[in-house]
Amino acid sequence: MDPELFDAIGRFFAEEIPFNRFLGMRLDAMEPGFARLSLPFRGELVGDPIRPALHGGVIATLLDTCGGAALWSQLTMGDRVSTVDIRVDYLRPGRLEGLIAEGRVRRVGNRMGVVAVAAFHEGGEHEPVAEARAVYNIRRVRDGAR
To answer: What is the pLDDT of residues 16-53, one digit of tens each?
Structure first.
């Protein structure tokens, strides 16, 4: 991927989407059909202070955002992606540290896309915290129309 385009997309994900900015999400890698996002740890992301563990909603948000980014990597500028359905399987508690998500497109059509996503801690690719299968609606821009 062109480094300038990657930088522009990374800035958009990290700075222009208010919720991503609030959480501190970063786009670390992107190529056609793949995206890798990271979420640094902050105390406000704890959902279970007794265990302690990251909040499941924060994990699901990272998975959903990563899946959308992976799908968007196969589209054109101006196309829109929105989540239709996402199934999250929580496999183990999220430790109080940063989290990484990797999404891979399984199928992209004219109107729908399917992405598999996994969230894990640094160095724990084979011990995912959660996995998701997400379906996204694709709204393609044709002839400059939005």
So the answer is: 889 999 999 999 999 999 999 999 999 999 999 999 99
CB 67 within 8 A of CB 103: yes
Q: Are 38 and 100 in contact (CB under 8 A)?
A: yes
| Residues 136 and 68: beta-carbon distance below 8 Å | yes
37: nearest Cα among 24, 22, 19, 48: 24
CA torsion, points 102, 107, 112, 117, in degrees to nearest 10? -20
- More confident position, 81 or 146: 81
Tell which residue, 71, 47, 61, has the closest CA to residue 119. Answer: 61
